Amino acid sequence: MKLKTVMVIKAVVCLAFGIPILFFPKFLYGLFGVELAGAATFPAQQYGASLFGNLFLTWLGRNAEESIGRRAITWALFIYDAIGFVITLIVALSGQANALIWGPVVIYLLLALGFGYFLIKPSKA
User: Fold this and answer.
1) Environment class of residue 89 by beta-carbon count within 10 Å: exposed (0-12), middle (13-18) or buried (19+)?
2) Burial class (CB in 10 A: 0-12, 13-18, 19+), 56
3) 122 backbone dihedrals φ, ψ, rounded to 5°
């Protein structure tokens, strides 16, 4: 697999979750059995905004050649997805959400593993 493929997958995931979280956070979180009350929609929408940032980072950076910048992007996405995996796993194991939460757990894990692979993979140079 190529880094470009992982970047495109990440972009699609960010688009698929970013739009509903940004514009319909109560609905999307409700699907996972999480109720957003009052001001809780604000941090949810902030998260939606961060997904849009990741969307553009991955989509626009998908064709980047091997460089310090591409490595920095890969590190940032690896850390982001690894932390997302741990936090979402904790929520899943604590019972704070319904069984659908395991979807994002798996998505975060696979993306973290994908970006992590390209951090340890020897470069062709």
Assistant:
1) middle
2) exposed
3) -65, 140
Residue 53 burial (C-beta neighbours within 10 Å; 0-12, 13-18, 19+)? exposed
pLDDT of residue 124: 65
pLDDT tens figures, 72-82:
999 999 999 99
Q: How far is CA 111 from the centre of its chain?
A: 7
Residue with tokens 């979750």: 17
| pTM, entire model | 0.92
- DSSP letters for 37-76: -GGGHHHHHHHHHHHHHHHHHHHHHTTPPSSHHHHHHHHH
